[in-house]
Design goal:
Blueprint (H helix, E strand, L loop, with lengths): L3 H4 L1 H17 L3 E9 L2 E10 L2 E8 L10 E5 L32 H15 L9 H4 L8 H4 L5 E4 L2 H8 L5 E12 L2 E11 L5 E2 L11 E10 L4 H4 L5 H8 L23 E7 L5 E7 L4 E3 L1 E3 L10 H7 L3 E5 L3 H13 L3 E5 L23 H12 L4 E5 L9 H12 L3 E4 L4 H14 L3 E6 L5 E7 L7 H14 L6 E2 L6 E3 L5 E3 L2 H17 L13 E5 L12 E3 L20 H11 L11
Parallel strand pairs: 5-7, 5-13, 9-10, 14-15, 14-17, 15-16, 17-18
Antiparallel strand pairs: 1-2, 2-3, 3-4, 6-7, 6-9, 7-8, 10-11, 11-12, 18-19, 19-23, 20-21, 21-22, 23-24
Helix pairs in contact: 10-11, 10-15, 12-13
């Protein structure tokens, strides 16, 4: 893919002039020098505040300005900011990132944001302020982002918490659980609990056996009045015993008259403690008496509502899919069955029980990141398929460098698929498709199961995805839809003016997903061999709006829209000034000493 500074000479000129003006006007910017290296066009700068100099490098992603600039500290021995990803040279978390980026932001604003961060935190100085109070974070992480680094997880179902909460304080019992490993993640599901001397409670929503799981492990649960801080993070079995030593021993005696913790010593056992606020804490006790705390995951508060023909086309092709929800999961598994040999899957979310009504996965994937569980499912459908995954939220609070890497990987895919129904993700992927000249397929399931949309955009054959989206919106303007109020975005549920709740079923979602899948191998054919005379269709699943009856299919013609919007068909020639500037940079050795003061 052609770098941005070769595609867009006007943007290059804007960036250069902006930095030149900032050097003249800002006394805190004491040096700035452009360079060209393996990472592309970069800017090294020195920011001075409170008597200290901070060397930083500003780099630009390949599809800039559609993706955010990356700013990293240089020449540092350790991490210097609370707003920094990774180690000493980790990207800074500034005022603009994947969650709020727009094309008007330039290197100047990112440098100004970097200066404000260093000026507030004063990381190289003394008497640093309270960063949490002075430089508040804009972080708003999803559950998937929060649990990305948690290797040991367990699911606290509502049924389990209701059962434990209903027990008297200072009572105990045993429980059975499964323990399974998917990739690097271990997860636990508690499916049975019995108070000592009482009746067994069973969570009928959780399967007692899972393929590859360690089944019917036995643990001890205890209902206590301990505070959460008192429980803390015990690291050994002795810590657990000491924790419970001050409580009435008799109330915790088993039917054999022994203390529950005396039974530990197997290869692995569980200890589940309910604190004074009824919050549950699960610990695993191993043979060497080490104790590890499991990270608790709670369900969201949402009520339950012969591949032979395409094999030669798809074999060896890499498909990038963003969004592995109910639509994306079906598309991924269908493509695996059709012979696709390589995938790059992007989704930041976890699979929770309430997702299973329409998702292609099952209980084996619960509490896993959807991409990890899909990777395992694909390997069971088609062994040998190469699947790379990313748990990033492309338009969320993430490292700019990480997002830039993910977008580069998407640009390397042969076909891009947006299965998110998220306008911001669509715009970002459409920009990648336009810049990298990749075919793109997208779809939408209309709320209430009335139907859906499928579309594909092929470089040099169809208008760009952005232009095609405009054609669809024009159609909607000319054919206004009846009033349907979305209840939960992305949940395919809608409510009529009369209060009738309409929900798209798994069958509705599956129809749209599998129609969209058919576009994928067709994108690899020449226009003359295409099975589809149009590149956008509305598919009716019920009578309503513009659909006369179920299965009514309405093509949307793109004949009046230009197809010259693809980058290498509409690029600006680099002017002489730009050529000379880049040639000078190429003569430099990035490893040589910088002239920046």
């Amino acid at each position: 893919m052609m770098p941005w500074f070769l595609r867009d000479s006007e943007r290059l000129k804007l960036e250069r002039r902006g930095v030149e003006e900032l050097v003249r006007s800002a006394n805190w910017l004491v040096g700035a020098e452009w360079l060209l290296n393996d990472d592309g066009l970069c800017l090294d700068a020195v920011i001075r505040t409170k008597g200290h100099d901070y060397d930083v490098r500003v780099s630009f992603p390949t599809i800039y300005p559609d993706a955010p600039i990356i700013v990293r500290p240089r020449k540092m021995q350790s991490r210097i900011s609370m707003h920094q990803y990774g180690g000493a040279d980790g990207p800074l978390c500034l005022e603009w990132g994947p969650d709020n980026w727009h094309r008007d932001i330039t290197a100047v604003q990112m440098l100004e944001s970097t200066y404000r961060l260093f000026d507030i935190e004063n990381p190289l100085g003394e008497n640093q302020p309270d960063i949490a109070a002075v430089a508040p974070s804009r972080h708003k992480l999803t559950i998937g982002q929060q649990f990305r680094s948690k290797r040991l997880r367990w699911l606290e179902t509502r049924a389990l918490s209701n059962f434990i909460n209903g027990q008297p304080v200072n009572t105990a019992g045993s429980f059975k659980f499964t323990f399974q490993k998917t990739g690097e993640i271990w997860t636990s599901l508690i499916h049975e609990a019995t108070p000592f001397g009482g009746s067994t409670w069973i969570d009928n929503q959780i399967p007692t056996t899972l393929p590859g799981a360690i089944a019917d492990e036995v643990g001890i649960w205890l209902k206590t009045d301990l505070g959460q801080n008192t429980i803390g993070q015990p690291a050994t079995l002795k810590d657990l015993r000491d924790l419970l030593a001050g409580m009435e021993q008799a109330t915790f005696l088993t039917t054999n008259g022994t203390s529950p913790v005396d039974g530990f010593g197997k290869s692995m056992s569980g200890v589940l403690i309910a604190d004074a606020t009824n919050e549950l804490h699960l610990f695993m006790v191993f043979r060497d008496e080490d104790v590890i705390a499991c990270s608790r995951v709670q369900p969201e508060d949402i009520q339950g509502q012969n591949r032979a023909p395409e094999r030669d086309k798809l074999n060896g092709k890499k498909i990038g899919i963003v969004g592995l929800g109910s639509v994306g999961s079906k598309i991924a598994l269908s493509l695996a069955r059709m012979g696709c040999g390589k995938f790059y899957l992007v989704d930041h979310d976890l699979l929770l029980p309430e997702n299973l009504q329409r998702h292609a996965l099952d209980w084996q994937g619960v509490v896993q990141h959807k991409v990890d569980a899909m990777q395992a499912a694909i390997s069971l459908v088609a062994p040998g398929v190469q699947t790379e995954v990313s748990r990033l939220n492309l338009t969320g609070q993430e490292s700019n460098a990480s997002i830039g890497g993910a977008l580069n990987r998407l640009a390397d895919c042969d076909i891009l698929i947006d299965a998110t129904s998220n306008p911001r993700v669509f715009n970002l992927l459409a920009s990648v498709a336009r810049s990298a000249r990749r075919p793109m397929v997208w779809m939408e399931v209309f709320g209430g199961g009335i139907g859906g949309l499928i579309a594909r955009s092929r470089p040099g054959i169809d208008p760009t995805p952005h232009d095609m989206r405009g054609a669809y919106l024009q159609y909607c303007t000319e054919h206004p839809a009846p009033h349907l109020e979305t209840i939960v975005p992305g949940n395919y549920a809608a409510e009529t003016e009369d209060g009738e709740v309409l929900v798209a079923s798994d069958a509705d979602v599956t129809i749209i997903a599998h129609h969209a899948v058919r576009f994928v191998p067709d994108c690899l054919d020449t226009p003359e061999r295409s099975k589809f005379p149009y590149s956008m269709y509305l598919i009716g699943l019920a009578k309503g709006w513009t659909f006369e009856a179920p299965f009514d299919t309405i093509p949307i013609s793109m004949a009046s829209y230009a197809i010259e919007g693809w980058d290498n068909g509409n690029k600006q020639e680099l002017d002489l000034e730009g050529v000379q500037f880049l040639c000078e940079l190429l003569k430099k050795d990035d490893s040589s000493p910088s002239n920046t003061p």
